[in-house]
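Thanks for the sequence, V.! I ran Hydrogenase expression/formation protein HypE right away. Repeating your input here for the record:
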Amino acid sequence: MKNGKLNWNVLKDIIDSNKSVSRDDVRIRSNIGEDCSVVNFGDYECVLSTDPITGAEKSGGSLAVHINCNDIASCGVEPVGILVTILVPEFSKLEDINQIMREISTEAKKLNIEILGGHTEVTSAVNKTIISCTVIGKGKKGEAISTLGSQEEDDIIVTKNLCLEGTYILVNDYLEKVKKFLSKEEITEAKNYISYISVLKEGVIGGKFGVNSMHDITEGGVLGALWEISKGNNLGFKVYKEKMPISQVTKKVCSHFDVDPLRFISSGSMLITTKNGDELIKLLNKEGIKATKIGKIIKEQKGILINNNKEELVSPPQRDELYVFIDKLSN
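Predicted structure:
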């Protein structure tokens, strides 16, 4: 098999074929495209999510904290703590582990979350560092929002610019290559994208606003996230390519490396569906968060991308463009 997240159809078959028991105290449970599980504890609910960092060579500790806390944010609640597992290859140095933990500690302090524990191991089972985290959030009973709660005719909104994480990884990990076509100012801008990776603020705002669904845009990019958020609820979507918020630096990076920005890992952008899109955009803008309406949730169970006034059918998400790019370099 090739590197990257399993494609949508394969993953759905595996999940559907391997169901566990269904407990009454689990309100939102495991499902393809669902960011978190939510467990009822009386007056409060525990919100849980887990994700690894595998595609980034640098700043993995920082990214690990944010991509996991972003999943909690997609439920509209705040994270409380994080559990960290670090697996490093035998040729690693102790300073490598210290650097990862410094990054995790720094970002955890920024988000006011506690490092609850974890596991650290040197092992021949990996040839590069793997950082896997589980984040725990807390909310009042019935407060957490399901990723799969979208409704027909919902406005579709994305926050900030797409591809922040993907652009940051390519510029940070392949600096010598990007120096050939990006200016110093553009490289600095791309490296600063890591400062915008968190979607915690917009997640909490969306939760209080009462949106129907939210989804952190990660592997598979905005089209992958749209597929998951709509198909999981037996609906579809219609979005417009020209409305997609993509920075000029990202456009240059994607063009040079032949990367499709709409299928490029995009932590830092929250996908939101709501009946009151314009009102939510005003609220987000007031809080200093850029937000863009890119389309609608539709009844027809298909994904439609409008490109130059022509309809294109969107296929199920495959491997993220980041891994396609990495494969090209190794061949």
